[in-house]
Amino acid sequence: MDTNDSDEFGSGSGEGDASTPLLEEYPDLILEKAMAIAFQSIGDPLWQDHDKQFEELLPDAIQHDISRSMPMAAPEKE
Amino acid sequence: MMTTAIALQRLKGAVLRDDLDDRYIDFLNEAIRHIATRHSFLQMKTAAAVTIHSGYRSVTLPALFKEFQNGRYPAVAALPAGDESGSGDSGSGDEESQPIPVYSRQEIRAPSPVVPSNPHLTFFQENGIWTLKYPSERRSIFR
Known about the structure:
The structure holds 2 protein chains of 2 kinds. Chain A contains 3 helices and 1 strand; from the N terminus they run βααα. Chain A is an all-alpha fold. In chain A, helix 2 (27-41) runs antiparallel to helix 3 (46-69). By secondary structure, chain B is α+β, with helices and mostly antiparallel strands. Helix content of chain B is 22%, strand content 24%. Chain B is built from 3 helices and 8 strands, in the order H-H-E-E-E-E-E-H-E-E-E. In chain B, the strands form 2 sheets. In chain B, strands 1-7-6-5 form a 4-stranded mixed beta sheet. In chain B, strand 5 (102-104), helix 3 (105-109) and strand 6 (121-126) form a beta-alpha-beta unit. Chain B is elongated. The model of chain B has no long low-confidence stretch (mean pLDDT 83). At the A-B interface, strand 1, helix 1, helix 2 and helix 3 of A face helix 1, helix 2 and strand 2 of B.
């Protein structure tokens, strides 16, 4: 079963040293999107640059994830 | 290791707006939510057992549920032996486990709907709560 936002930080937890699996694995991807959201919220056109960067990083992250989720081939019998 | 504190520090350093200090955590969370909708990453996967007990027709799924794994058959039904339709009318008293298909409500209500086989389960979200439901009165138990 997949959980949608299991990585979400709880209120106030952001000031601690907690981490999450998604953040550990894809920090740049998450930060680019967070920057895009932050800049968009204040009407700064920089958000488009960060969103573009995010969209460029996402396929690699997905490919990396798919590659990792592929089962390893069983060793050939001698 | 990228911790929440480091991520927030980098985010603040890039945006440089002190008046947003209370919102950076929200931006980070929103980014994670967005990414989680774009792809189901390995880090999002977890296992949870839910049971529809005899006499009940539905069960609430965990709050962070997104989608099932194991293809069309993530559930197991304990059906009366010989009761392939799930009608509960075999009469022998014995039970046997069998995989049971699960369909989303959208699939069944789509303009070109999927025609579910019987027995089956449906799952849907209402008011933010995911529910797994057995669509008719049956005596089966799902795990």
